[in-house]
Design brief:
alpha+beta, 8-stranded antiparallel sheet, 4-stranded antiparallel sheet, 8 helices
Length: about 325
């Protein structure tokens, strides 16, 4: 039996000088001590990041032992949770005669940015899932931020949804689709992910500024509830910017998902009323990111990480028996 793959993070996430480059900051300093003295917030952010792994593991253990689930059934993926149209798309993409043009007949495409909308979940599941998320939100369980930009939401690995929900969703259902849509981004061999839910509401997070994701491919599903405004907007691909960015707006549609390249610059406009929950899955292909970290644009310097880390694995030079999964697709 093959050994379980060990996923890693890139050291840029924990390094002050690489953090400065990654964030596009321009600072002047003669030596590291001056950097830390003059730009203490940078050092504070680096130290915060170094604690994230341990804090997440602690929260996960507490939640597993103490949290009482309202809808325990939503933690194990079932076909009945998925829209019939989505299952039809997966069936087509899994057939030996599947091709991109055939897949595009099932999806809605937006401009030339390789953004696609498709039905994903049922209304019944979305309703139960949001109720479960609200139950967790109102509990006294420890909670972590979904990411560095969103303040409200849930890290799904911490509440126990990775192994029996997100992982099979990625491997069995999404990967046949992404193999056709994004072959150049490792769509056929997306082997890890980070999944979370974000919440937008009045007096909380209203919008999300421009950014790109730490992912090769992103799935963004609108779970509800009732809200107005808050469209997504998409700009250029980060590796191919234009002098005058061309932005398009895309409306959220409940139960439907948007697939887009992780490197596509995007954001969310402010909601005007109500409350919106979105399921976000950052899908990663180690065969792609092992060559170049998408966040620091350098060959990754790997460090230990929990779970899927940031989706990096040991290279073939380090582990000769490693197999390129894309070559076997």
């Amino acid at each position: 039996m093959a050994a379980a793959r060990q996923f890693r993070a890139c050291s840029c996430f924990f390094s002050d000088n690489l953090f400065v480059r990654r964030c596009g900051l321009h600072v002047r300093y003669r030596h590291r001590e001056q950097l830390r003295n003059d730009y203490g917030t940078i050092e504070a952010e680096v130290q915060r990041r170094k604690q994230l792994i341990h804090q997440s593991a602690e929260r996960k253990a507490i939640i597993a032992s103490r949290y009482k689930r309202k809808h325990p059934e939503v933690y194990i993926l079932q076909d009945s949770f998925l829209a019939p149209e989505f299952l039809e798309i997966v069936s087509y993409c899994s057939s030996p005669d599947a091709h991109l043009d055939g897949l595009l007949r099932y999806t809605e495409s937006f401009s030339d940015k390789r953004i696609y909308r498709l039905p994903v979940l049922t209304e019944e599941f979305c309703r139960a899932f949001v109720e479960e998320l609200e139950n967790f939100e109102q509990s006294d369980m420890p909670k972590g931020r979904p990411n560095s930009m969103n303040n409200y939401g849930v890290l799904l690995n911490e509440i126990g949804m990775d192994e029996n929900f997100i992982t099979p969703l990625r491997e069995k259902y999404l990967r046949p689709i992404t193999a056709l849509l994004y072959p150049d981004l490792g769509g056929a061999c997306l082997d890890s992910h980070k999944a979370f839910v974000v919440k937008y509401a009045l007096h909380e997070d209203l919008d999300l500024s421009s950014h790109y994701d730490n992912a090769e491919v992103t799935l963004n599903v609108s779970l509800g509830k009732d809200f107005t405004e808050g469209n997504l907007y998409f700009g250029d691909f980060r590796q191919d910017p234009s002098p005058v960015p061309n932005y398009i707006e895309v409306e959220h549609v409940g139960t439907q998902g948007l697939l887009h390249r992780g490197g596509q610059i995007h954001g969310a406009l402010p909601i005007a009323s109500g409350e919106r929950w979105n399921l976000i899955v950052w899908m990663r292909a180690s065969t792609i990111r092992n060559r170049l970290c998408p966040m620091c644009n350098q060959k990754p310097e790997l460090v230990e990480a929990e779970g899927f880390g940031d989706g990096f694995t040991e290279t073939e030079d380090d582990v000769p028996e490693t197999v390129d999964l894309c070559s076997l697709w």
